[in-house]
Design brief:
49% helix, 4 strands, 333 residues, mainly alpha, globular, 13 helices
């Protein structure tokens, strides 16, 4: 199953020294995280599933006029598709809430309906809807291609623990942190938002810690995401086989991420954050200025937190890739 990754890495070796120079900070799992998930998944697609997926993507390519955040874009169509759902939010803002589900901290496992409003949707309902579109033979070529791109991306998102929980803090976006000496800076005064924050650490910060620098002394040389995918594929080989053997269960995946967020993302913070009574917020200025209240905790994240979080990030990326492959293999076997 690793032949795809191996052959791709051989091709990449020629261009690796400058592979991601100048790549800006990323979103969601980040450019790097989503591409890693896609590369792992693609390596585990059966031949028919891989050929079908690439054919669907080629039949209705991404609009060349769409502003793409991730630079440089992956030359692999499947990996390039993995970040499209973030870009399309500028054109289809109604899709913004498809990337997460706000299950309150402390919620007991059960019905997800209260946390997934039908008028906005959530990552669970979005995956269910896009899967139906992809499977429908009456769907247009454009609709199927978009559905596949959403699925590739959202399977990654649902495995990011802070996309499955909230503590009246927008999934940790309202928890400013000092991350390895990078102190929080206010990015929006009216919304009382800061970076770095806890959500950013899980989306991007930890992944960047094990992807750069690829060349000692050269911070602008990043480890290619394809190489990271290959390393994770090898590290989790036995568990990937297990993850692939089980049917897709979006609800269980959401609850799994929610539990990890509570036990690790919040649970390993140096300063404990109490579970707050659930309340709807529209910015970090709400809930008695939750962003400023969290700022006063002076969360300082460094080696100890990274030691707890990084293994979980690696596992979630590998798990997402394996489960994405299993989902698509079940469609086209």
């Amino acid at each position: 199953m690793r032949s795809f990754l191996r052959s791709a890495l051989v091709s990449l070796a020629v261009i690796a020294p400058g592979f991601a120079a100048g790549c800006p900070s990323a979103r969601a799992w980040g450019c790097e995280g989503h591409q890693i998930v896609a590369y792992i998944a693609e390596a585990h697609l059966n031949p028919r599933a891989r050929a079908t997926a690439l054919k669907i993507l080629a039949a209705s390519p991404i609009d060349p006029n769409l502003s793409r955040y991730c630079r440089p874009r992956s030359a692999d169509p499947f990996a390039d598709a993995s970040t499209w759902a973030d870009d399309i939010r500028s054109v289809r803002p109604e899709t913004a809430r498809w990337h997460f589900i706000d299950i309150p901290r402390g919620a007991r496992r059960g019905n997800l309906a209260p946390y997934c409003p039908p008028d906005t949707g959530c990552v669970v309902s979005a995956l269910e809807t896009q899967l139906r579109i992809l499977k429908d033979p009456k769907s247009s070529a454009a609709a199927r291609a978009d559905a596949l791109r959403f699925i590739i991306h959202l399977v990654g998102d649902i495995h990011q623990p802070l996309h499955g929980t909230t503590n009246n803090d927008e999934g940790g976006n309202c928890v400013p942190v000092d991350f390895f000496g990078e102190v929080p800076r206010e990015t929006n005064v009216s919304r009382e938002s800061f970076e770095p924050n806890l959500h950013w650490v899980w989306d991007v910060g930890i992944i960047e810690r094990f992807t750069i620098p690829a060349v000692p002394g050269h911070a602008d040389h990043w480890t290619p995401t394809l190489l990271i995918a290959d390393q994770l594929d090898l590290k989790f080989r036995a568990r990937i086989a297990t993850w692939k053997s089980r049917p897709a269960d979006f609800v269980s995946w959401a609850w799994e991420s929610h539990a990890i967020a509570d036990s690790v993302a919040y649970g390993k913070l140096p300063r404990a954050i109490a579970i707050e009574p659930p309340r709807a917020i529209s910015s970090c200025a709400d809930d008695n200025s939750v962003g400023l209240r969290m700022l006063r905790l002076n969360e300082n994240l460094s080696d100890a937190y990274e030691s707890a979080a990084a293994p979980i990030v690696r596992e979630q990326l590998a798990k997402a890739g394996a489960r994405l492959a299993a989902l698509l293999n079940s469609l086209w076997h």
